[in-house]
Amino acid sequence: MTLYLNLAELLGTRIEQGLYRPGDRLPSIRSLSQEHGVSLSTVQQAYRHLEDMGLAAPRPKSGYFVPVARQIPALPQISRAAQRPVEVSQWDHVLELISSSPQHDMLQLGRGRPDISSPTLKPLLRNLSRQARRQDPDVLTYGGIRGDIRLREQIARLMLDSGCQLEAQDLVVTTGCHEALSAAVRAICQPGDIVAVDSPSFHGVMQALKGFGMKALELPTDPLTGINLDALEMALEQWPIKAIQLTPNCNNPLGYIMPDANKRALVALAQRFDVAIIEDDVYADLAYSYPRPRSIKSYDEDGRVLFCSSFSKTLAPGLRVGWIAPGRYLEQVVHMKYLGTGSTAQLPQLALAEYLKDGHYEPHLRRMRAQYLRSRDLMVDWVSRYFPAGTRVSRPQGSFMLWVEMPQGFDSQKLNRALLPHKIQIAPGSIFSAAGKYRNCIRLNYAEPPSATIEAAVKQIGATIAELIEEADLQQTQA
């Protein structure tokens, strides 16, 4: 990300969090230049970007101010998850979401798909074609159970950015992050065991727990900082928790980045109660700020953190290539990998190793971060403009997911059905909870480049929400 966008994101977050209120004067161009060590023109570009987003307004000879008329949507409320283990539900609704095949006339704002139209993916496509044409036996045979060594060496190099110093032998290549997470859970837990999770949480992990006969204990989660560590400590004292699973960086679906102090405290708690941490880091490379946030794994001193990631969100989901750094659980994870898919397909591994080695990954990430940041700001603006008053919206610090909260009692499952005739799909909030909470919430994907079509879809979603709320109010009055 360019310097001015990085600075604009920082100021925008401060405005969003209320550090600068409507009517407040923003820092001067000169003071920001000195504070952040950037040129005056960089600060001016940042302010022009904020002006385009409606977050800042210039006043002659006075500087920049937060517009008085600026309506900043409130953040989603801190989740109030019941601190007791529950059996995971919602499989039917998850199946409905993931079974929807791509359709040219259906705008799918519910799936966790990145934009795959970027020209920075062309070298990867050429690599795939070249590998296929070579007729190399390596492409058609089984690879090693731990994955191709060339790819693992490149992944180990990438993980330096997350604060981890690992070797290729510390990693296992998986068929996407989903297999990494599943293998991690199975390596540690047995049927009937309890796993503590952030709430709302990725539905894929929830369904893995359901399939393996385990229970989830949902923890209260702040939309800006992540899980409540005091609540986690109480849960660890009360329940025989075997593992803690969470997405601390560019969380799905809330979008927060857990502060480093909280990450260190989390590792200390895990050490104290001798539990494992399963870290889903699949979105962290898409953080809008630079450098990318540190992983929990980077604070791991005794191998209890199982780090899981993939290229599905940063490059393309169809590659189905992920990895896990399982620490002390390496042999158990390799066994679970064998029981799952055996070895991962060679062709995408070799093409990815070449793509990474040739230096194409970082330019691609820079392009996508900037695009997703612009798309986020527009999506938040559209939701604020077209959704009913009182709608709460997350402030993602990376990736391409927006969490939207409507009034209590609203039914997002009903909304999804009502949107089908309009060829629009959203992700209902209930699938992000083991117990089916967050029925009044939805998750929206803003990965695709902004367009009039997407704006019209958001406007239609807002109108449909208003109709359903009015219909529910009428039924309640008549009752």
How many DSSP E strands? 18
The best one-word shape is globular
Radius of gyration from CA coordinates: 23 Å
**Average pLDDT reading:** 91
Q: Estimate nothing, just give the exact number of structural domains.
A: 3
Strand order of the largest sheet: 3-7-6-10-11-12-13-5
Number of helical segments?
A: 16
User: Which structural class best describes the helix and strand composition?
Assistant: alpha/beta
Explain this structure:
By secondary structure, this protein is an alpha/beta fold. The protein has three domains: 3-65, Orthogonal Bundle (Arc Repressor Mutant, subunit A), CATH 1.10.10.10; 89-116 and 363-478, Aspartate Aminotransferase, domain 1 (Alpha-Beta Complex); 120-361, Type I PLP-dependent aspartate aminotransferase-like (Major domain) (Aspartate Aminotransferase, domain 2), CATH 3.40.640.10. 42% of the residues lie in helices and 13% in strands. The chain has 16 helices and 18 strands. The strands form five sheets. An eight-stranded mixed beta sheet has the order 3-7-6-10-11-12-13-5, with helices on both faces. It has a four-stranded antiparallel beta sheet with strand order 14-15-18-17, with helices on one face. A hairpin with a 3-residue loop joins β8 (221-222) and β9. α8 packs across α12 (330-340), α10 runs parallel beside α11 (260-273) and α14 packs parallel to α16 (452-478). The longest helix is centred in the C-terminal third of the chain and has 27 residues, at 452-478. It starts with a helix and ends with a helix.
